[in-house]
Design a protein that fits this description.
137 residues; alpha/beta; Rossmann fold; 5 strands; globular
């Protein structure tokens, strides 16, 4: 199962996602794409991704072949993450045939009602859902 993790800014959430997915689904083929080199480097430091890349074109290309896309909610929102998510990136995520598992974050001038800031339960729920998706295929 090809899982794409996308993150920006410092890549801390992306690193946690890559590590958690590897623990939850050890057989997964994980591609980690950072919107900047710092985010990619942080996901690389996890040692859990099969492939890594950086930048707008990498996001667009990786979205074409991913079965599951995982990342913060902002990856599907143009100009999110203080402008790191270009309209082309957001469109690639939103129009991909992949199943999307988006982590809600109340950051960067976006408030998602019902989301407690920094809730570990959100990450646990996402991993349980990804495990279900991988087991179905």
């Amino acid at each position: 199962m090809k899982i794409l993790v996308i993150d920006g800014q410092g890549g801390r959430l992306g690193r946690r996602l890559v590590e958690s997915i590897r623990k939850t689904c050890p057989e997964a083929n994980i591609t980690a794409v950072g919107t900047n080199s710092m985010a990619t480097e942080n996901m690389l430091a996890s040692g859990c991704a099969n492939q890594l890349a950086t930048g707008e074109n990498a996001v667009i290309v990786a979205c074409r072949t991913a079965r599951i896309i995982v990342g913060p909610f902002g990856i599907a929102t143009a100009d999110a993450m203080m402008g790191e998510i270009s309209p082309a990136m957001a469109n690639a995520v939103a129009s991909s045939p992949a199943y999307r598992v988006l982590i809600p974050m109340n950051l960067c001038d976006t408030y998602i009602a019902g989301v407690a800031k920094g809730s570990a339960a959100i990450l646990e729920d996402a991993m349980a859902h990804i495990r279900e998706l991988v087991q179905k295929n």
